[in-house]
Design a protein that fits this description.
Number of strands: 10
Distance between the termini: 45 Å
Strand order of the largest sheet: 7-8-1-2-9-10
Largest sheet: 6 strands, antiparallel
Radius of gyration: 19 Å
Oligomer: single chain
Number of domains: 1
Number of helices: 6
Helix content: 25-40%
Order of helices and strands: EEEEHHEEEEHHEEHH
Structural class: alpha+beta
Shape: globular
CATH class: Alpha Beta
C-alpha cells in the first residue's frame, strides 16, 4: 500500500523517514524513530509491533538483520508484511514478504533503504533511491533529500492505486521528533508536504532549535532571541514580496 525511504545522515547521525500511499494517514502507521537509536518503517499489511519492538531491540544493541529474523519468526502474518530499518551505526536491512501485493520489493544501500508494495513497478523505489543519493552527494539537507526522492518515486509511478497521504519524520539526537509533518487525506500529499515544510521553515524549525535537550535541559530561556530572529526573517520575506506558505489567520500580537 506504500513506499518509504529510511535514511541516516552519516555526518550528523540524524534519522529521517518519508512515506507516501493511497491509504489514509500513512504517517500514523509506518514511521517509528528514536534519536541515537534507529528508524523503522513498517508497511504492507502493517504490524505496528515491527516498529515499536524493532526500536526496543535496536536499543538493546541487536543488529537490523537479527531484528528481522526475530520479528518475522514469531509472526504468522510475515508473508504479507514489509519493513526496513537502520541503526545508530548505519547498519540497515529490509524484508519483503513473498505475498505482499505486486509490485513489491526493496533496495538497501549505505545509510539508506527504500521499500514499497502495491507500486507501479520496481522503477519507483529505484528512482527514489537514485535521487536520494544524488541529493545527498550534493549536500542537500536531509529533509530536502527525502522530499526530492519521494517526488522522483511518484514521477516513476508511485502507488499504483493513486494518492492519499504522506509523511516526513526527522529525528536528531533526542527522543522527540525535530520535525514531523503529515498530509493525511489529500489529492496531492507530497506537494502538501512541501508546503508544510515551507511553513515549518518560517517559524517552527527556528523554535525547535531552542527546545530543551538531554545536554541542555533548560533549552533557550530568553525567548527574545528567537522572537527577534523570526521577526527579521518575516520582515525579509515581506520585503521580497514572498507570501507566507501558511494557511493560518494573521498573527495577533
Amino acid at each position: 500500500m506504500t513506499w518509504s525511504i529510511v535514511a541516516r545522515d552519516p555526518e550528523t547521525g540524524h534519522f529521517g523517514i518519508a512515506v507516501a500511499s493511497r491509504f489514509f494517514a500513512v504517517g500514523a502507521a509506518v514511521p517509528h524513530v528514536k534519536g541515537r537509536v534507529g528508524a523503522v518503517a513498517t508497511q504492507a499489511f502493517v504490524s505496528p509491533l515491527y516498529g515499536t519492538d524493532g526500536l526496543k531491540l535496536l536499543e538493546e544493541g541487536r543488529s537490523p538483520e537479527e531484528i528481522i529474523e526475530t520479528l518475522t519468526a514469531r509472526d504468522d502474518g510475515r508473508r504479507q508484511r514489509q519493513f526496513h530499518l537502520i541503526d545508530a551505526e548505519g547498519r540497515n536491512a529490509a524484508y519483503t514478504g513473498e505475498i505482499c501485493v505486486d509490485w513489491a520489493g526493496h533496495l538497501v544501500d549505505k545509510n539508506v533503504s527504500v521499500a514499497g508494495n502495491m507500486l507501479a513497478g520496481p522503477e519507483v523505489i529505484a528512482e527514489t533511491l537514485r535521487v536520494y543519493k544524488e541529493r545527498a552527494s550534493a549536500g542537500a539537507p536531509l529533509a530536502e533529500r527525502l522530499l526530492d526522492a519521494m517526488d522522483a518515486g511518484e514521477a516513476a509511478g508511485g502507488d499504483k492505486r493513486g494518492k492519499q497521504s504522506a509523511a516526513l519524520v526527522l529525528y536528531r539526537d533526542q527522543d522527540y521528533a525535530w520535525l514531523r509533518i503529515h498530509a493525511d487525506d489529500h489529492a496531492d500529499p507530497l506537494k502538501e508536504l512541501r508546503r508544510l515544510y515551507a511553513v515549518a521553515q518560517e517559524r517552527y524549525l527556528h523554535v525547535a532549535e531552542t527546545m530543551p535537550t538531554r545536554e541542555n535541559p533548560h533549552g533557550m530561556i530568553d525567548r527574545r532571541v528567537i522572537d527577534g530572529k523570526i521577526a527579521a526573517l518575516e520582515a525579509a520575506r515581506e520585503a521580497e514580496g514572498r507570501p507566507s506558505a501558511s494557511f493560518a489567520t494573521p498573527w495577533k500580537p
